[in-house]
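Box 3.1. Reading complex inputs
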Amino acid sequence: MTLTPEQLAQIEEERAAQRPTRRAVSEGMEAHLYTAYPVLDHGFIRVIDYMGDDAAICQAARVSYGRGTKSVQNDEGLIRYLMRHWHSTPFEMCEIKLHVKLPVFVARQWIRHRTANVNEYSARYSILDREFYVPEPDALAAQSSTNNQGRGAVLQGEEAARVLDILKRDANRAYDHYEEMLGTDGQQGLARELARMNLPASIYTQWYWKTDLHNLLHFLRLRADSHAQMEIRVYAEAIAKCVKDWVPAAYAAFEDYRMGGATLSAGALGCLRRMLDGETVTQETSGMSKGEWREFEAILARR
Amino acid sequence: MTLTPEQLAQIEEERAAQRPTRRAVSEGMEAHLYTAYPVLDHGFIRVIDYMGDDAAICQAARVSYGRGTKSVQNDEGLIRYLMRHWHSTPFEMCEIKLHVKLPVFVARQWIRHRTANVNEYSARYSILDREFYVPEPDALAAQSSTNNQGRGAVLQGEEAARVLDILKRDANRAYDHYEEMLGTDGQQGLARELARMNLPASIYTQWYWKTDLHNLLHFLRLRADSHAQMEIRVYAEAIAKCVKDWVPAAYAAFEDYRMGGATLSAGALGCLRRMLDGETVTQETSGMSKGEWREFEAILARR
Amino acid sequence: MTLTPEQLAQIEEERAAQRPTRRAVSEGMEAHLYTAYPVLDHGFIRVIDYMGDDAAICQAARVSYGRGTKSVQNDEGLIRYLMRHWHSTPFEMCEIKLHVKLPVFVARQWIRHRTANVNEYSARYSILDREFYVPEPDALAAQSSTNNQGRGAVLQGEEAARVLDILKRDANRAYDHYEEMLGTDGQQGLARELARMNLPASIYTQWYWKTDLHNLLHFLRLRADSHAQMEIRVYAEAIAKCVKDWVPAAYAAFEDYRMGGATLSAGALGCLRRMLDGETVTQETSGMSKGEWREFEAILARR
Amino acid sequence: MTLTPEQLAQIEEERAAQRPTRRAVSEGMEAHLYTAYPVLDHGFIRVIDYMGDDAAICQAARVSYGRGTKSVQNDEGLIRYLMRHWHSTPFEMCEIKLHVKLPVFVARQWIRHRTANVNEYSARYSILDREFYVPEPDALAAQSSTNNQGRGAVLQGEEAARVLDILKRDANRAYDHYEEMLGTDGQQGLARELARMNLPASIYTQWYWKTDLHNLLHFLRLRADSHAQMEIRVYAEAIAKCVKDWVPAAYAAFEDYRMGGATLSAGALGCLRRMLDGETVTQETSGMSKGEWREFEAILARR
């Protein structure tokens, strides 16, 4: 992570200042505020602001269900009920704003989550810094031979060295030429909005990203999943740690019902019933395709 | 406004409690928090939570424009620039959560603003209260004879009395029957989700409504406008007062560029140039329809 | 369903006219176009327009996955794969536009699905017709004694008769007064935007509603579910019949993975593994609450 | 534009096939369907599907306003009225689906329009082609000295040649290394999801992009504007040509009220009134900042 001494000083200053508020306060989240948590080689996430807490979720649910929610004794039980029955609107009543520094190829995946507010650093207005993602050796994975979007074994030795060399040299050469095209202060160089096109997808950008808790959990479910690309998963994991301290009951329910849960098809449920009745079901007798059967077995084997 | 003593006591309690936070705090908004401002005969709006302030808008804009925003000296100037050029994303970085009590026919207009989070009191789960909107005598307007969706003169004397009598009697009779159909505690009456269909659109509902500042200002532009139905306009006006204290610079820019501004067509701009050149332009020579010309004249005459 | 002879003639005319197009055509959907399918006593749904078909879903998926999708041999297999892995964007590439006539209390539930385009009949501009939903005798359910939002046994005999009588009389009286307040043509009556507030939630409104297939299937999952209120479920079921003919492969996958499927929590999956290993698991030893356990048993018992 | 003979043959085939439909047909749009219109050096836009036409906009508006719209005699007048009063929902009743090939840095701007459905070619699954945007000599603009996001004079002679040389060489070298890292068929090279990070923002991607007419017009207003970056503006202009033939009345209203129109602030309207009264207003006496005054003068001078 590359934060200038000025930036670090500003973060310290922001963290030191406290003011009274009448709003809901999450002590767990207050402890994280403004701190930049490193992700990848130059990236970070930091929480800039938040709205609401576990109690705010329940408060909103109780407006909806009125006297009807009296039966659920406590907040934790109510939150589990809401999560189990996909009642998403109470979770939308919490909001988070993050400052994220991330490589452009990660940003391109991330931005596909449309229900969010974004202010990204503009390379039309301003000049990007010389910072590129270069994977750690243990992240230099080969293409998976079985999964079109997956990774296989880690590259070793000379092959790994060659790849790292290419990534570094090409990125630096591209940046040298970017600067050269922009010209020095005295000159009138190429427009920034054009010069930027020479820069690779490994370059870092940054943005403010704001979303509600329901959409954030959906983001985490997809991006903290083991099938997500590692370079976005580490961001999701860093965010998840903050969320856990922000809304502990909601996060626990999320872990049980979403991250650790699984959706089974009508066909899979049918097989399950036969298996519980003592029948031995195989892929051939399951009615499922090979792919589905493999996934079904993985769910049952999961620990 | 009908708040029970318990509710009023709870509001006072919420207002009294203050806790330290590291987040951005808007002093102007803190003063409004939780207070229920009466609207219509039984309704209210109250701010439950907020995120951000004027500085947060600028902070987000400066992430986007990076070093490029150094030229704008101060926050107020930057906010005016953003508003003038329809740069909406920095305004999306502020968020507000309101508790609103409102008649169902107002709620039906309001909900058409889709970019918001809502938890509404559910008449499937719970029993609605006996509270109906009955207009003040000076709001009992006749149908406009020129505008299909407008109001004309205020009804007077016997005609007004008759209308008020109908509204009150029908609402109360409908509610009596609602209660009767639901049955008393001992009995198994009609399902709530069915019995509610007997209630008129003047009955009050309530919800938590959360949206970002950009979408809130869009809501205010449409609903605080003189063409909006009075019964929703008074809600927009009550909210606007809170917004003015929350983000004073953003609200001032909004008043200048949106509420007090006007959009002119290419044709209207052409007429304007001719008029500035000393030509007398009439509807006949304007190229505009009668309706457009009338609106154009109104914009120029506005004070 | 109350369509005037003029409306029926217009529908016949629309159905008779055919024109050549280069666009994707779904034969199954063409057969449904414009036909009004009755729902409840005065309502209907009819498909006004559509975009795309099963092949369009695959076409979009193949743009995303490029050469990577060659491995999936056929469209049906690809669509099942997309549905199973929650790849929602290809389903968003199909669009449908419906004309729906429905009671206001149903419309209020329906509109909570925000990702859709809506043009509703405006009671500010125009006068509503005298049409109210009055349940069939077998739909006159009592409040459930176990479920706050559910229905119990059907009301019988005098109790049923009394409820029907109330609903009809109150609705008609409210409408009589609505007309009276609006005044006759010669008079200047109460503004429409005010008079409408006297009308009950059982009155019919209508709208054009347009959404994409992904969001439509989400709507159907929630509203064609057995826990949905019957009065909206019948609309969802009528729409589902059209969708089945429009995109047969997508609809079949939806039935298997969504309507007939179930999501199990990490805790439930753990119990399942123990049961498959031969252990007898009870609610007490399951780690689940009573409510969760009841739902878990229901999933396993489902046929 | 680089379409393979196979792709061109497929487009011809798609264009040749016509089938009868009962849906609304726009003859103007049918003529454009599937044809790939070249944009920049390797890009294109082509319309894949559409829903609705000018009449469909009016049909939806008439559902809303019921008998109230009878006063507007014809469709064109109604569409102008809707556009003038920002009644956006009837325009949402039309939908378009485009296939677009575009450089990544253009795609990154484009995707910020969130209300759209997208399926993009995935460089995790598949291998990108060796196609990069290299500007035409007359597009090689210098950075503007007055506008942080603008362009100044066109680079000339050696400077231009040097820039073009850098862009081409760096892009090709990056692609050579991309291929090298991916490995040949026999080998297990670097995972595609990693190798892609070496590619510059000038590389072409492609996507299916679907949106409704209201959001499309908003996109065109921002991206066909003279302040938009040229490389996205040419896409907006190519799309605009198709839209003009698809919904001629809506497009004409859009040109008059949006593209050719202007929004004036309350302050600017006040100045205008003083000017029409014969007063000479200068920036100093206007109450506007220098920037605002410059923009105000530009609006009045526009021809």
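In summary: Chain D touches chain A through 56 residues (CB under 8 Å).
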